[in-house]
Amino acid sequence: MTSYLPAEFSVTVQTADAQALHLAVHGDLDYDTSDDFTPAVTRALDAHAERYGPTLRDLHLDWAELTAFDSSGLSALLGLHRRTHPAGITLHLHHQPVYLTRMLKVTGVTGHLTQHAPATDTAVPATDTAVPAEADKTTG
């Protein structure tokens, strides 16, 4: 009988510049490893912020070396989106295996995960609805 040995999970930095960080995900992202995904990506994000400051706008995830993905992996990916999107960071998913693409499509989260994140430094607060004084003049 052949036993299954899962591929070792890791997240590595491929390239980085002030506004973009490219990470590669290797191995299984599943129940056994999903708790490792968040700290690994957090370390990469923290290192980027330490080097460049809060300038990151695009986080690229390369899935070419992903060997398995389940609902726990999806939960970890959604958690990453919950952290990055409010910070103005857009996720980009590259080289997705068929099973990852299928799960994202079936669950309906592809568009949610990859929606453009608004820049945080130029966002206008929703409560800022004041009308300029010139526009408030009435004719009579």
Extended strand count: 4
Shape: globular
Q: Order of strands across the widest beta sheet?
A: 1-2-3-4
Q: Helix amount, in percent?
A: 25-40%
Distance between termini? 91 Å
Q: Show unreliable segments.
A: 122-140
Order of helices and strands: EEHEHEHH
Radius of gyration: 20 Å
Structural class: alpha/beta
Assembly status: single chain
Number of distinct helices: 4
Strand content: 15-25%
Mean pLDDT over the full residue set:
86
Major beta sheet summary: 4 strands, mixed
Q: How would you describe this structure to a colleague?
A:
The protein is α/β, with parallel strands linked by helices and 140 residues long. It is built from 4 helices and 4 strands, in the order ββαβαβαα. It has helices spanning 34-52, 71-84, 98-107, 110-114, and strands at residues 10-16, 20-29, 58-69, 90-94. Strands 1-2-3-4 form a 4-stranded mixed β-sheet, covered by helices on one side. The longest helix is centred in the N-terminal third of the chain and has 19 residues, at 34-52. The protein is globular. The termini are far apart.
